[in-house]
Amino acid sequence: MGEFPGHRPTFSCRNCRNPVAFWQDLISKDFWGKSGRAFLFHHAMNIVVGEKEEKQLITGLFTIANISCSNCGEVMGWKYVQAYEPRERYKEGKFIIERAKIVKEY
């Protein structure tokens, strides 16, 4: 949980303030998670990726893996592992982090 020069602001776990994403990696704020609004990121850090599972989401069938904070274990969202619809393949390898699970820090 150190400083990241040149990478401010960061998005951190609401529970423990562990940094989980840089604002530069934010792709979109126009997504939805289990608890409401969610953000799509190119990369996430300080997370643990869980087991893969197939899940029917609003935009189609995906293989996803839940992601948790590496410090406190809070489930933050998920990683898109595979998209079965060609128009959704841009999400593969990217991360959904729920807005209610993070704070923006400067």
TrEMBL record:
Cited Pfam families: Yippee-Mis18
Presence of the UniProt keyword Isomerase in the record: no
Keywords, sorted A to Z: Metal-binding, Zinc
GO MF entry, a single one: metal ion binding
The Yippee domain, residue ranges: 9-106
Keyword Zinc among record annotations: yes
Family under the similarity heading: Belongs to the yippee family.
Protein name: Protein yippee-like
Organism expressing this protein natively: Vitis vinifera (Grape)
